[in-house]
Amino acid sequence: MNYHVLTLFPEMIENGLNTSIIGRAIEKGLISLNAVDIRGFSVNKHKRVDDYPYGGGAGMVMQAEPVYRAYETVREQIGRRPRVVYLTPQGRVFSQAVAEELAGEEDLVFLCGHYEGIDERVLEEVVTDNISIGDYVLTGGELPAMVMIDAISRLVPGVLNNDVSAEFESFYDNLLEYPQYSRPEEWHGKKVPEVLLSGHHGNVEKWRRQQSLIRTAERRPDLLKEAKLTKKDVEYLEN
Ligand code: ADE
Questions:
Q1: Fewer Cβ neighbours under 10 Å: the N or C end of the chain?
Q2: Is 75 exposed, middle or buried (0-12, 13-18, 19+ CB in 10 A)?
Q3: Where in the chain is the domain with CATH 3.40.1280.10?
């Protein structure tokens, strides 16, 4: 998976994703991260990339041409038209399902806006997907791009140490994850649930499934409606 992030703050992307699991995935060559500085494509001798909005109003608008040139450079490098995600509160809301859909791409371009946005004309020409990470307004698209890159990367084979672990976590099958415990067996007077010490794999699996069901019902009942439940699951929840 090759990510290309068009941004006015490339250091944010580089510094934000070079640690831990994503940093290691880059080192291993499982993913690559190309932060492209839009300012480097300014057509102005003062390296400006923004200007006043036509029609007036507060703030500045990112101009079309620098964004377009940054995009064109990436497109030429890839050799075809990639999917281009514009991070905007006006997009469809990001979810595990969207992460799974995008994880199948070879290249993904993220376009990060700032100020009052980007000239609509270049968005019309290059953007294939408008995506929001939630119903709140951030100061720029960099954090949303990083959120998406993190969520997509952990679905790329080899990125997680354990290939099966992605599918047992929250939102797989629209169920929340069961609680986890590690040593010691007793902490602050609280004991690890007996079944987890039993060594009985079948009972452990059953208990974990039930915990997932209870948690989802209590914390995210909206997800439960989408979950694929067995007859046994439904029986358990009804009792
Ligand atoms: N840019 C500003 N706010 C955003 C949000 N919530 N999601 C995606 N991009 C954004």
A1: C
A2: middle
A3: 2-153
CATH 1.10.1270.20 occupies which residues in the chain? 169-238
Cα separation of 200 and 21, whole Å? 31
As assigned by CATH, the class of the 2-153 domain is alpha beta
Nearest residue (by CA) to ligand 1, atom 2, is 138
Report residue 152 as tokens. Answer: 């997509």
Read off the pLDDT of residues 68-90 as tens digits, 9 standing for 90 and up.
999 999 999 999 999 999 999 99
Kindly give, in sequence order, each residue whose CB lies less than 8 Å from that of residue 139, ignoring residues fewer than 6 positions away.
114
Dist. CA 30 → ligand 1 center (Å): 27
Here the tokens at position 133 are: 């990470």
CATH topology for 169-238 is: Trp Operon Repressor; Chain A (1.10.1270)
List the strands of the sheet with 129-132, edge to edge: 32-37, 2-7, 107-111, 83-93, 129-132
Distance 132 CA to ligand 1 centre (A): 5
Q: How many residues does the chain have?
A: 239
**What's the predicted TM-score (pTM) here?**
0.94
Q: Is 16 marked within a binding site?
A: no
Q: Which of these, 149, 78, 155, 88, lies nearest to 117 by C-alpha position?
A: 88
